[in-house]
């Protein structure tokens, strides 16, 4: 039985003007269109100029069957991974595409990629809202161009035999082109929010992709001589995908999804451990509570999506101004907290002042509810500072002191840093509105 919502979706898919593709930035559409055109043109040229042997067709069918079998075995894991992530997403297809790039003529590599991504689109990614057909086409095109690069590297070396050097050189060309095309596409999709991790992926993303290329190298080594050994790839690949899914779930459980900082629960747990460490070693640490001034006015004026962009900007700034061993988290709304390990009161105040200053200089380019571009700048924050053990022997006592300092900063005119020794100087001030 087909629901009315599904019928509407089918009609939308048949109406070209209603495609989600047209909502993407013009530069992304142009780049993707040119890349697809180049891929199709190269495929046509290769088809007309390179002879395909029957044994190569059989190898292509074997790789496609192996890829489909592996995808079916891990379909639920891949569906969960893809639904939890926004691109860049490592789909593990390089394990099968890279061997095709090395062993097969390029036109058969293109066919192999088409079969793999059609199967993934219908079986593993179906029903995931952010995986639209144009994304699947763009990803398949990138993978095909990467395969062409790997094949070209083999031709450049002039040695198609299975050697360590030829596999490594072809794998490097495959990886570089894949990373470059993916990075350019992600940059053009959202240039205002572009960063190296967002476009080129994190170290973990790249290591995962390199791991799939390495597994593909093992397939290349085994396929011509002992094809049955390729089946041994299935179990490590299954464990690898499952491990990545577990990591994604752990990050989802511990991270605030809007800002990518620690969520309140995880931050509290880390802070309790830091109290125990400081007590055991007779140490100290600082705690900052950062409250954005008049944040509600941003949501009321420009909309909540613009407000989210401001929160993301502040979160990135806080991470940049703190150390890897510090704990930065979001307590909800417009409040952020930072635990500065092994820091004195003076050092904590200095960090707080630096963050406050950087927030006042921050420029956020976003869009309002009507889609009009807007620039949000000259925002301010009130920051409260407290330290262990001076302001408390438990994390609750320390944070209560920091919260009181934020309240005092707002009473004293906002856009300032207040630490616990400064509270007395503002305690006698007349009460005024301190609403954010």
Strand content: 5-15%
Rounded radius of gyration (Å): 27 Å
First-last Cα distance: 51 Å
Please trace the helix and strand order, writing H or E for each element: HHHHHHHHHHHHEHHEEHEEEHEH
Structure notes:
The structure is a single chain. The strands form two sheets. This protein has a five-stranded mixed beta sheet with strand order 2-3-1-6-7, with helices on both faces. It has a two-stranded antiparallel ribbon with strand order 4-5. The protein has 436 residues and is of the alpha+beta class. α16 (395-411) links the parallel β6 and β7 (417-419). It is 63% helix and 10% strand. Residues 1-13 and 424-436 have low confidence and may be disordered. It contains 17 helices and seven strands. The chain is elongated and about 80 Å long. α5 packs parallel to α7 (133-157), α6 (106-124) runs antiparallel to α7 (133-157) and α13 crosses α14.
Which properties best describe this structure?
single chain, alpha+beta, elongated, 17 helices, two-stranded antiparallel sheet, 7 strands, disordered C terminus
């Amino acid at each position: 039985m087909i629901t009315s919502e599904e019928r509407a979706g089918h009609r939308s898919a048949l109406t070209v003007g209603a495609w989600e593709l047209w909502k993407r930035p013009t530069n992304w559409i142009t780049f993707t269109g040119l890349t697809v055109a180049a891929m199709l043109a190269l495929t046509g040229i290769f088809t007309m100029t390179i002879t395909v042997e029957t044994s190569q067709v059989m190898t292509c069918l074997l790789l496609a069957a192996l890829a489909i079998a592996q995808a079916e075995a891990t379909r639920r894991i891949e569906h969960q991974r893809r639904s939890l992530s926004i691109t860049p997403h490592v789909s593990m297809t390089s394990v099968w595409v890279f061997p095709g790039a090395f062993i097969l003529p390029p036109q058969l590599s293109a066919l192999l990629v088409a079969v793999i991504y059609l199967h993934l689109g219908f079986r593993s990614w179906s029903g995931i809202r952010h995986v639209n057909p144009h994304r699947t086409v763009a990803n398949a095109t990138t993978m095909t161009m990467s395969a062409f690069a790997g094949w070209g590297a083999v031709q450049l070396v002039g040695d198609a035999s299975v050697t360590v050097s030829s596999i490594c050189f072809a794998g490097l060309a495959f990886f570089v082109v894949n990373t470059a095309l993916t990075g350019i596409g992600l940059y053009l999709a959202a240039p205002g929010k572009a960063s190296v991790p967002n476009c080129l992926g994190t170290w973990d993303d790249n290591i995962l992709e390199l791991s799939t290329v390495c597994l593909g190298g093992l397939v290349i080594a085994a396929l011509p001589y002992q094809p049955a050994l390729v089946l041994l790839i299935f179990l490590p690949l299954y464990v690898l995908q499952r491990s990545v899914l577990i990591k994604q779930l752990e990050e989802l459980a511990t991270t605030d999804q809007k800002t990518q900082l620690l969520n309140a629960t995880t931050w509290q747990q880390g802070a309790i451990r830091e109290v125990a460490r400081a007590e055991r070693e007779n140490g100290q640490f600082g705690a900052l509570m950062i409250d954005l001034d008049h944040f509600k006015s941003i949501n009321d004026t420009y909309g909540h999506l613009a407000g989210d962009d401001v929160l993301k900007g502040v979160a990135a700034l806080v991470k940049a101004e703190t150390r890897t061993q510090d704990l930065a988290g979001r307590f909800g709304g417009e409040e952020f907290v930072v635990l500065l390990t092994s820091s004195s009161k003076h050092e904590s105040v200095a960090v707080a002042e630096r963050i406050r200053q950087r927030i006042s200089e921050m420029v956020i380019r976003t869009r309002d509810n009507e889609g009009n571009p807007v620039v949000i700048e000259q925002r301010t924050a009130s920051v409260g500072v407290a330290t262990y053990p001076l302001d408390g022997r438990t994390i609750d006592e320390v944070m209560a002191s920091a919260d009181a300092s934020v309240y005092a900063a707002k009473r004293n005119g906002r856009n300032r840093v207040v630490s616990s020794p400064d509270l007395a100087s503002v305690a006698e001030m007349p009460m005024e509105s301190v609403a954010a």
